[in-house]
Design brief:
The protein is an alpha/beta fold.
Length: about 525
């Protein structure tokens, strides 16, 4: 008892003994067995203090002021809870209903976690939960090891917002805290759309709001669809900062730029000696994205072998590094993006359908700029302001012509056009000052090069299927599209396509087509 008393005295009164009194510290360490016991306790306490100070500094640096109360009689659970949650919130604990009531009366909290079973024969007072949820307006979560329907119903009757089973670990708890601590007010979302992703398009705004507020988009993979240059990467980065904050990792992987033989190692990591150049262990992108966002850009180019491994990693949040023998766990939010037609890739067995179904849960379609005409003046104004103090004014007649431009490169075209206009020694831009390709509405990319059209995915499909089969399949798809556009009027289809041939009927998908057949004009193939 005496040693315990001395230990407690040292722990309480000289918490930084090693720093401020190294001689006494060393003397105690060399003393009898009681000294050894004392030093073990002192070391343990010093480590706890150091950890607390590090977490406090981290929270201050990241402006974290989200306050959480956890009520549980299990000391080990509370210590683990504090250790896991402290990087994301300020945590206070209570070990009984009485302590919890006192803390709720005295302090304000943003979120409270209540264990259902307190003590051997004691259960949480549901009136306390009601007070927290309804009177104090605290987001309340019930924690229990019992997945009991009766308890579940009673908890929600008293105002509980969420019900979590403790045995499933802390991943769901951390996700919930991250989600609740993120700004989600209407004014903040409006600010996001005004400053981060500029748009007035109602459909786009609706998709972005769902991405930022809907729990399904937070807990499931997000799939951003859109042409090159519409701002998919910008939206992925900005939404990550909005939802999780700058302090959490955002890992951007462009799948199309990584060689096929290296992408598995890049994503999952590898152990030393896994292959010839594996000189050291490597942490993969999935692990680097823990408690943050993994952004897989150009997901359509990912090899099928890696798709299968990633499917398992997404579902189980664990994976095996290349050459490894131990599973690695990582909790991450997944965002994917592509400008490809995924249906074509699945139909041609280049992309796995089960993997696509797993990814295609929270879809955010971004329209091309030519379909968001009202956004064009806003984007021009925004990009002009980025140039600094100099301003130019685009006259209304010139802006009308700009708005009729097709913008094949989307926002990248806006940046290029602004750059050309800013180089002119004029403050007011007239029609004659616009670039020729804008006035003539020409696709400047296709004029000189087919590089943008013949992308890596098409090259891969041709290699796998052969050019003849690739051309045959896509010819049929193009004809079907024109048949659909002209309501089955084949004469109009052939005229529009400049393709007059009896063989056009061989390409139409008869099973899908609801249109009656027409006789072709002639059996000639005309190309202009």
């Amino acid at each position: 008892m005496k040693s315990l008393h001395i230990t407690q005295h040292i722990v309480d009164c000289i918490p930084k003994l090693r720093i401020y009194s190294p001689r006494l510290y060393n003397a105690l360490a060399r003393s009898n067995k009681w000294g050894i016991i004392i030093m073990v306790d002192v070391n343990k306490r010093l480590q706890e203090i150091e950890r607390e100070e590090q977490l406090k500094e981290q929270r201050e640096n990241n402006n974290i002021n989200f306050r959480v109360l956890v009520v549980d009689d299990n000391e080990l659970f509370i210590k683990t809870f504090i250790s896991e949650v402290s990087p994301y919130a300020i945590v206070e604990e209570a070990y009984s209903t009485h302590q919890a009531r006192a803390k709720l009366d005295k302090n304000n909290y943003d979120m409270a976690f209540f264990d259902y079973h307190l003590g051997e024969n004691d259960y949480i007072d549901f009136n306390l939960i009601k007070k927290a949820a309804k009177e104090k307006n605290i987001y309340t979560v019930m924690l229990t090891v019992f997945d009991d329907e009766e308890v579940f119903e009673k908890a929600f009757d008293h105002g509980v917002h969420e019900y979590l089973v403790k045995t499933r670990g802390f991943a769901d708890i951390i996700k919930l805290i991250q989600k609740r601590s993120s700004p989600q007010s209407d004014s903040q979302i409006e600010e996001f759309i005004k400053c981060k992703f500029i748009t007035q398009d109602k459909d786009t705004i609706r998709s972005i709001k769902a991405m930022l507020t809907d729990d399904n988009y937070f807990n499931q993979p997000v799939f951003i669809e859109g042409q090159t240059g519409v701002g998919k990467t910008l939206l992925a980065e900005a939404s990550h900062e909005f939802l999780l904050g700058k302090h959490t990792p955002f890992i951007h992987v462009n799948c199309s730029t990584i060689p096929e033989n290296l992408i598995e190692s890049e994503l999952f990591g590898h152990v030393k000696g896994a292959f010839t150049d594996a000189k050291t262990n490597k942490i993969g992108k999935l692990k680097q994205a823990e408690n943050g966002t993994l952004f897989l850009d150009e997901i359509a180019t990912m090899p099928k072998k890696v798709q299968e491994a990633l499917l398992v990693a997404i579902e189980k949040k664990q994976f095996m590094p290349v050459g490894g023998s131990q599973l690695v766990k990582s909790q991450f939010r997944l965002v994917c993006a592509t400008n490809e037609n995924m249906s074509n890739l699945i139909e041609n067995k280049i992309f796995r359908s089960d993997f696509f179904c797993r990814l295609y849960r929270g879809v955010v379609p971004i329209k091309p700029l030519c379909e968001r005409v009202d956004d064009i003046p806003l984007l021009f104004e925004y990009i002009i302001r980025r140039y600094g103090n100099r301003r130019i004014h685009i006259r209304s007649q010139a802006m009308d012509i700009i708005k009729r431009y097709s913008f094949p490169g989307n926002v990248r075209d806006v940046e290029d056009i602004v750059d050309l206009l800013m180089k002119k020694q004029k403050g007011r831009i007239d029609v004659e000052d616009l670039p020729d390709f804008v006035i003539k509405n020409e696709n400047r990319y296709m004029k000189n090069s087919y590089k943008e059209l013949i992308n890596d995915t098409i090259v891969k499909m041709v290699r796998e299927k052969g050019l003849a089969q690739y051309m045959e399949v896509h010819k049929k798809m193009i004809i079907d599209r024109f048949v659909e556009m002209h309501d089955g009027k084949i004469a109009k289809v052939m005229e529009d396509m400049k393709y007059n041939s009896r063989r056009i009927y061989e390409k139409i998908d008869v099973k899908k087509s609801k249109f009656k057949r027409y006789e072709p004009i002639n059996d000639q193939l005309t190309v202009q």
